[in-house]
């Protein structure tokens, strides 16, 4: 990243989103930043890294200020994604909830987004297969069930307790409801009432709710899980232990079908940036961790302390592979929980641009588990 690279410059994304389309959902703590002032003269002309001119002069990228979106955090902060766009402007925006990001994608306020599997499936199904495609993986793991050790020492102690998930129907909510059913317990999926009380709580609020005694634990992604551990909670279960090879998708890269159709070269450029970012993260884990924390500081106003950052970072694996078979399983879990009618997911993936990038990088291609476009 050049030393002359300009710092984050804040915008007013809510106003921008409203101007693009009157979104019905409030996008909490939405921030965005733009780059390009430090680009070389040949890049300013609109030429991508390979010398060809992109079909668009702007790419609007959405992601969360979460460590499970490490590819986006590092790729934007280090300029690795921007570099592949050449002179095209990268316009990032951050979101705190999947539905808000899906709304932004559908309205055209963003073109490409990093997002969890449940919002990806919901967005695809509700649009009858017309709104988005999953074009890459991004991260696996980073989800834990953490509990108050004074109240819960074994799995059976969860019965009758109050356990938080981030949001009704979100990826962790679905996983917890499915796991509860496997224990033989009953919970109403909508109200969360039953043998275990599932309390839908924003991740920003969960630590305070836990410390006040109103929650007995939480099934949450990083870094919220490690924040709770720092406050005295203990890890009862790592979700990775429930999956084959301890791998399951936690973050995808999605694109609006309209943008993919009109600007396939820009999508390929972003994917080239994400692949190179993941390779850099895996080759430079300590530097990458610091970069992600710098991005979090710029986006949220404060970095994570080492006691939270280190264990959280350790539990997340960046990956180009979308782990498509695990997304199919997660969709079936949502059906089993009563949160989703049986979906037709054929066509939810288009991995052709990613596999083209991977082949050019000399890396193995990835599989869509039979759910790709034909």
Can you walk through the features of this model?
39% of the residues lie in helices and 17% in strands. The longest helix has 20 residues, at 264-283. The protein has 374 residues and is an alpha/beta fold. Mean pLDDT is 87; it is low at 1-46 and 48-52. The protein is globular. The strands form 2 sheets. The protein has a 7-stranded mixed sheet, sandwiched between helices. Strands 8-7-9-6-10 form a 5-stranded mixed sheet, with helices on both faces. Strand 7 (162-165), helix 7 (171-182) and strand 8 form a beta-alpha-beta unit.
SSE diagram, text form:
Elements: H1 13-20, E1 31-32, H2 41-44, E2 58-63, H3 70-77, H4 80-85, E3 89-94, H5 98-107, E4 112-115, H6 117-126, E5 132-141, E6 143-147, E7 162-165, H7 171-182, E8 197-200, H8 206-212, E9 217-221, H9 224-230, E10 234-238, E11 249-256, H10 257-262, H11 264-283, H12 285-300, H13 306-314, E12 316-318, H14 324-337, H15 352-360
Parallel strand pairs: 2-3, 2-4, 7-8, 7-9
Antiparallel strand pairs: 1-3, 4-11, 5-11, 5-12, 6-9, 6-10
Helix pairs in contact: 3-11, 3-12, 7-14, 9-13, 11-12, 11-15
InterPro entries: ABC_SsuA_sub-bd, NrtA/CpmA_ABC-bd_dom
GO cellular component, one term: periplasmic space
Signal peptide: 1-31
């Amino acid at each position: 990243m050049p030393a002359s690279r300009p710092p984050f410059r804040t915008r007013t994304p809510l106003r921008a989103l409203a101007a693009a389309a009157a979104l019905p959902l409030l996008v909490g703590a939405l921030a965005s930043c733009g780059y390009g002032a430090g680009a070389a003269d040949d890049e300013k002309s609109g030429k991508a890294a390979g010398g060809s001119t992109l079909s668009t002069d702007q790419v609007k990228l959405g992601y969360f200020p979460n460590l499970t979106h490490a590819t986006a955090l590092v790729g934007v902060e280090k300029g690795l994604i921007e570099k592949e766009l050449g002179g095209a402007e990268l316009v990032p925006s951050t979101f705190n909830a999947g539905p808000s990001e899906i709304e932004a994608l559908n309205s055209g306020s963003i073109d490409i987004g990093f997002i969890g599997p449940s919002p990806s499936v919901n967005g695809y199904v509700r649009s009858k297969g017309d709104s988005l495609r999953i074009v890459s993986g991004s991260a696996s793991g980073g989800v834990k069930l953490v509990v108050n050790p004074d109240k819960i020492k074994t799995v059976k102690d969860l019965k009758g307790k109050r356990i938080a998930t981030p949001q009704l129907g979100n990826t962790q909510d679905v996983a917890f409801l499915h796991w509860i059913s496997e224990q033989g317990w009953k919970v109403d999926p909508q109200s969360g009432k039953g043998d275990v009380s599932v309390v839908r709580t924003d991740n920003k609020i969960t630590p305070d709710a836990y410390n006040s005694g109103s929650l007995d634990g939480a099934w949450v992604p990083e870094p919220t899980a490690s924040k709770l551990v720092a406050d005295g909670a203990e890890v009862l279960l790592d979700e990775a232990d429930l999956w084959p090879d301890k791998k399951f998708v936690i973050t995808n890269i999605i694109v609006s079908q309209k943008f993919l159709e009109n600007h396939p070269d820009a999508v390929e450029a972003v994917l080239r940036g994400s692949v190179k970012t993941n390779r850099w993260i895996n080759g430079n884990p300590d530097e990458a961790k610091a970069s992600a924390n710098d991005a979090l500081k710029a986006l949220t106003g404060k970095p994570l302390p080492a006691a939270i950052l280190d264990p959280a970072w350790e539990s997340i694996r960046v990956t180009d592979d979308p782990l498509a078979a695990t997304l199919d399983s997660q969709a079936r879990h949502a059906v089993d929980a009563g949160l989703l009618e049986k979906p037709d997911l054929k066509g939810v993936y288009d991995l052709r641009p990613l596999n083209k990038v991977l082949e050019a990088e000399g890396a193995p291609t990835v599989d869509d588990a039979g759910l790709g476009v034909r």
